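Give me structure tokens for this 206-residue protein.
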Amino acid sequence: MGMMKFAVTPGFEVGGTIFKPEQLALLGSIIGENAKIELTNFKQLYVEMEVERLEEVKRKLSETGLEIYPVGFVTKSLIPCNFCRGAEDAGLEIAQKLNRMIAGISTPSPLKIGYAGCALGTSEPLLKDIGVVKMRDKFDMYIGGEPKSLKPAFAELFVTGVDAEQMMDIVQRLITYFQNNGKNKEKFSKFIGRISIEKLRNTVAS
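Here you go.
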């Protein structure tokens, strides 16, 4: 009997990434006794369960408002802050739109994208592959954060002062360029080092 994984999130709102009790109760009750649930460090639950009931379970979970994503070498769902400055000031709607655009795209290695609604950066955007920080009505973008290493590194400033539409376009261009030019299993930070941040900036953000 085969097993397969998928990722689950409740989406996000002011206050953070919040599961409702009934969503967790349903998840625990329908995935089966052989299933496993893993908490990731990027605000997703990984569910491993029997293939035979996979589509039925995904459908029932989706009906409660949970979002279902693929696992593996893909862009992860957006890792947001808690929007403590409120939905409008922190750009909740923009973050949700960005998430819909980027989540689940096949990439040479897993890609984590963080969003912060202000310079407090509670979602730790400088430790993500791509970090977006809202600065009043504009956005600064950072790339190449590397937390999982004996030599962790902060992301470098990539572009500054772009509007929401430009920001989303640049994120999409970065993902596409990584898809087309990254080596299999190459980390995004290594990819940037090989290509150079200057060439990426000239190719993707000019």
